[in-house]
What does this fold into?
Amino acid sequence: MIKPPFPINEAARLDTLRRLNVLDTPPEERFDRLTRLAKRLFDVPIALVSLVDADRQWFKSRQGLDVTETPRDLSFCGHAILGSEIMVVTDACCDERFADNPLVTGDPRIRFYAGFPLSAANGSKLGTLCLIDRAPRAMSEDDVRLLDDLATMVEEELAALQLATIDELTGLSNRRGFQAVAAHALAVCRRTDWAASLLFLDLDGVKEINDRFGHAEGDRTLMEFGRILLGTFRDSDIVGRLGGDEFCVLATRVDPECVEEALRRLDDAIRGHNEASPGGPLISYSVGTVDYDRERHSSISDLMEEADKAMYERKRIRPQPSSGHS
It folds into this structure.
């Protein structure tokens, strides 16, 4: 068996995949109808939409297979994403890359594989639409064109999914996108016993900015606040705009001192912005912070609700500053 090597753009590819906020999400009819169609059109026992993560291939849609993921080292799709064209294995038992692969010698006993790489808008190969049979077979030119057409439809659905999880104004994850990726991160924290903190931030005075300076300036203030949040927190922290003037950050593998240090950096960045914008709208914000407690927070929604209440309580009992946070 030959393990699939990493693409040369692996870091960027993984970043693109994770920004889709699709890993570990429930099945969706938009993808399932395409794998059902592929299974029927090609008369194969297994059809999958497979997304290749750092150390696994995870199946967004699966027909004829019970498991939701398999190790990347064993995956056929890990090889398929190295190219731009369909990868066909007519008989895995005669292919040195796969002959002694446990997925060939054991369940699901793969003999035939055809995988069409799924491309993102930036060219990254995220995974495949693939067909699997337990008997050797070949693909005709018409078969290849048909699978290409179906793969294009999967790509279009992935692109639509991304648009549905991104806030158009700031480019951050929207509420749906934030909750999806944060739920995944929180599940990892639960499994590994990592610490996490959620910050619920409210940008103060947006209505007043709109009334005094106009809605275009209000939009620019929201965009600038989002940009400052991204620049302040770590790449591994999850930043989202929930809607209106509400933002959220989930920081994992942190302690309370790290969170306070991040808030000090945020204050410094906002103070610098305000000092550089004389006469313009000043940015100020309120924040509520809650540390993740696996006994108290069964979901990301529980954590967000508690942090939201903490933010509004701080906003209620403390005067609003001209800049920085309360």
Observations:
- The longest strand covers residues 125-133.
- The first helix runs from residue 10 to 19.
- The CA atoms of residues 111 and 135 lie 5 Å apart.
